[in-house]
Amino acid sequence: MLAASSDFGPLATASIDNFRPLSGLDGCDKSRALRKTSSLPVAPETRSEDTTTLLPSATMNGKPLPLGAGKGQSKSDRPQPFSKRRKAKPLLQQCKEYALEHTWFIPFVILSIFLFLYAVNPTDSNPIHYFIFLSYPVPLAADASPETPITYAKGRRDFAFVVFYMVVLSFTREFIMQEILRPLALYNGITKKGKQYRFMEQMYTAIYFGILGPAGLWIMSRSPLWYFNIEAMYEGFPHKSLQAEFKFYYLFQGAYWAQQAIVIILGLEKPRKDFKELVCHHIVTLLMVGLSYKFHFCHMGLGVFITHDLSDFFFATSKTLHYIDHPLVGPYFCFFIGTWIYLRHYLNLRIIVSEFYEFKTVGPYVMDWANEQYKSPFSQVITTALMSILQGLNLFWLFLILRTAYRFLWLNSLGDERSDDEEESDGTEEQKLDEKVKGGVEGGAGPKVFLSREPFNGKSSAAQIRVDGLMKQRAI
């Protein structure tokens, strides 16, 4: 029972008779404590256990209380207090945040829409057909053998094919990196974000070129081009049509390099020290792919693709072994140097030299726009210039590779000369801030940190305290 006392303020003037239990609350074990926002004053020293034994009735000091003051009333009748809970986010905002966190989601939605539209009418008359499948099949002659492979000509619809597979590659790149390679990086003990992202990049590169490199060799083995037959690159020129697997491979490679150019433009990859050379390499590659496809030099382009794809595979796997500190990283790196020199320099120099000999002597050597015969002095200058620029970039990277090998053999240090040190770049700022905080705490010269308005001399990490005007937070 509550007794009237001066300690209870306004409740002291209320008569005991004015306090009657609310109906419907007799069986309650424990009533809800009154909120501070309630209109009834509460004794400052009253315990919650005491206040639950007797509650005000519908009248107090002769004044009726509002309906719904009892627990028996519905929640809709009670005066609702102010809620500090965060409102539910709209569906559009939730989708936006999910897409930003999972960058493969938007390409997946686009692909789903394309596939749904094609499933409505899965025939050649559906315009979506040109995005998914090859266009311009060449009809076979009436007396052709049943084993004669179908070839495909070239045309504007091939752009639709390239655009669609750019979306496919965007989805596969982001999905594989985030859902497969990130857990793999954590499994191998790679926790720093910079090193982790480099590991995912190189692993994805190894996966892609580990598939496309052997695919190029397989296509070459099914043609007179095997094995880098220089004369076969110019025989039968112009090559206006290609077999299905050859055309798919060439356009798919074009989609990959176009998608990689978008990655660089959007800044999805951290720039390396050789960023300018990398941009130049992408420009030259896109020009070579587009011009060789348009002007029928795809047989030469196949050889260039294979040499670069295989060397990129060995380079990416070498970097991956370095990130996980594998014991074979040293011998494998030496093996990679040998493959790089053979593929990117020996074989490519053979192709460049052929442009001064076989390019002129094998097949026609005259410009004929009407018959699409473009092997001429004009095209020779363009192809030689692009191949020479590409070879110059490869020599630049060979210099960096050999310098890395020198440091590994004589200084016992192995790292990528093209990129910053991932192990240091990710944690450098926090380490410097930790040192400043530690020095300030021990020497008394650092910034003062306050906890509950009192000076706090404990140790804090840079994740909670940003010094030198960046940000100050309480240390916990």
**Count of DSSP E strands?**
6
Q: In angstroms, what is the radius of gyration?
A: 37 Å
Assembly annotation? single chain
> How can the largest sheet be summarized?
2 strands, antiparallel
What does it look like?
The chain is an all-alpha fold. It folds into 3 domains: 1-71, no CATH class; 103-141 and 149-423, no CATH class; 437-476, no CATH class. 52% of the residues lie in helices and 3% in strands. The protein has 14 helices and 6 strands. The protein has helices at 48-51, 91-101, 105-120, 129-132, 157-187, 193-221, 244-266, 275-294, 298-323, 329-354, 358-361, 377-411, 422-425, 428-443; strands at 59-60, 63-64, 151-152, 242-243, 449-451, 454-456. Strands 1-2 form a two-stranded antiparallel sheet. Helix 6 packs antiparallel against helix 7 and helix 6 (193-221) packs antiparallel against helix 9 (298-323). It is globular, with a radius of gyration of 37 Å. The chain starts with 47 loop residues before the first helix and ends in a 20-residue tail after the last strand.
